[in-house]
Amino acid sequence: MTTANLHPRLTVVGHPLVQHKLTLLRQRETSTGEFRRLAREISLLMAYEVTRDLPLETRRIETPLEPMDSPILSGKKLCFVSILRAGDGILEGMLDLVPSARVGHIGLYRDPTTLAPVEYYLKLPEDVRSRLAVVVDPMLATGHSAAAAVERVKQAGAEQISFACLLAAPEGLSIMAEAHPEVPVFTCAVDRCLDDHAYIRPGLGDAGDRLYGTK
Ligand SMILES: O=P(O)(O)OC[C@H]1O[C@H](OP(=O)(O)OP(=O)(O)O)[C@H](O)[C@@H]1O
Ligand SMILES: O=c1cc[nH]c(=O)[nH]1
Ligand SMILES: [Mg+2]
């Protein structure tokens, strides 16, 4: 099956630096500090892809030598929405590239038995509706957390929404295609499948635990 069959608006970020860093990130022996650093670097590179279509306008400026009309980002710009807690490992890198972006947080965890997302926190910027909202989480596994987070952002009035993750399972992409087919999804890789505990295989393990050293 090709990736286009899994999701109509899927981008796999194939840049060699991203792919190299993703391999290091996946490795069992990668330390917590190194994992956090790699996730941040990959996210910065992903932010470059995610923002590729931001609209530009022209501003009259003066260089030291003469005036010119030069391109500049137009209107209200970006809001990153992190799905706590592992989303914060992506947020840092995206903010490195776009330091002025607004930030929202959605606290979600997967119920270990039902795997349904349980919401425990929500705070979005008031003007999220006039920004491109980029929902971030390293893992798109069953897809239920991402689908629920995007739904929340839609309820807040946002009309332009993207989702960015490090790894996606085919199952999660199908759920996103069903629930939010118009929302572009960016990932660094589409892995083989989910296992019996809904972990992505081959995957990278538990992203939150690896980012924060909690296991
Ligand atoms: O696609 P899904 O099947 O919904 O799974 C993906 C979710 O699972 C992980 O979070 P987790 O529940 O482990 O919470 P954490 O970030 O607090 O560790 C991950 O960061 C996603 O949010
Ligand atoms: O593989 C997975 C699936 C869900 N959450 C993770 O952190 N890893
Ligand atoms: Mg986790």
From TrEMBL:
Keywords: Allosteric enzyme, Glycosyltransferase, GTP-binding, Magnesium, Nucleotide-binding, Transferase. This is Uracil phosphoribosyltransferase. The keyword Phosphoprotein does not apply. It catalyses: UMP + diphosphate = 5-phospho-alpha-D-ribose 1-diphosphate + uracil. The gene is upp. It holds the Pfam family UPRTase. 5-phospho-alpha-D-ribose 1-diphosphate binds at R85, R110, D137, P138, M139, L140, A141, T142, G143, H144, S145, D206. Its EC number is 2.4.2.9. It comes from Craurococcus roseus. Catalyzes the conversion of uracil and 5-phospho-alpha-D-ribose 1-diphosphate (PRPP) to UMP and diphosphate. GO terms for molecular function: glycosyltransferase activity.
